[in-house]
Amino acid sequence: MTGSVLAALATGSVALAATPVSGFISGQIVSVKGTSFVVKNSFGTVGDSTVSLTGSSLLVKQSSATRSDLKTGVCVTATGQKATSGTVDALRITIAPAVKGKCASGFFGHRGSYPHSGTGSTGSPPANFTGFGNFGFAAGEITAVKGDTLTIHGQNGTTTATLTSATNILATQKVTSSAIAVNECASVRGTSADNGITVKATNVNLSEPGQTGCNHGFPSHT
């Protein structure tokens, strides 16, 4: 978001406040009521975000997987710190089923739905009402596995991701709103007209807290 837009938001521009923008929040669920829930945001300027679901909201939940599941041909998303070389130092690796025989190459499984920078498939997810630190991202098909390094080929090119003992490896499946529970981690993509205080969810990604709580996969906001 440009400085002029941020300034307009800071001064409470009525026109901008009434216009929903796309963005992303991530953190721990602190309360659930019906089809809405509150997320304690892990980064950005908003402490708590109230998320509401619609009939078109897509919900997925992640369960634990192992390194042995990371094989050539498997579809994955790697998130973590982006090294100066462009490699992703992975805090999280998420395995997802192929869609019509192809791996999704965008954030939350949407091909081309995130703005990227540099080369390869690294970049940043949509974030018009939140900020990110040194975020590294790669999504696509594993084309090679060598020791602690995965080669991932996506729609925007090829990127390597490095695994460590702290890397959280997960597998994804679709769920209903009944899977949303207090203390779980939620990564939410959606729209907001009030800078992330309330968010209308298009995609919700649920998981259990990892070794670093609900910050797994996302660097701290700077």
Task: Give the helix/strand layout.
Blueprint: H1 3-10, H2 14-17, E1 21-33, E2 36-41, E3 48-52, E4 58-64, E5 75-82, E6 88-95, E7 135-146, E8 149-154, E9 157-162, E10 168-174, E11 185-192, E12 198-207
Parallel strand pairs: 3-12, 4-12, 6-9, 6-10
Antiparallel strand pairs: 1-2, 1-11, 2-3, 4-10, 5-6, 5-7, 7-8, 8-9, 11-12
Describe this structure in words.
By secondary structure, this protein is mostly beta strands. The chain has a domain at 70-171. Helix content is 5%, strand content 43%. It has 2 helices and 12 strands. Strands 1, 2, 3, 4, 5, 6, 7, 8, 9, 10, 11 and 12 form a 12-stranded mixed β-sheet that branches. A hairpin with a 2-residue loop joins strand 1 and strand 2. The longest helix is centred in the N-terminal third of the chain and has 8 residues, at 3-10. The model is unreliable at 1-17 and 107-128 (pLDDT under 50).
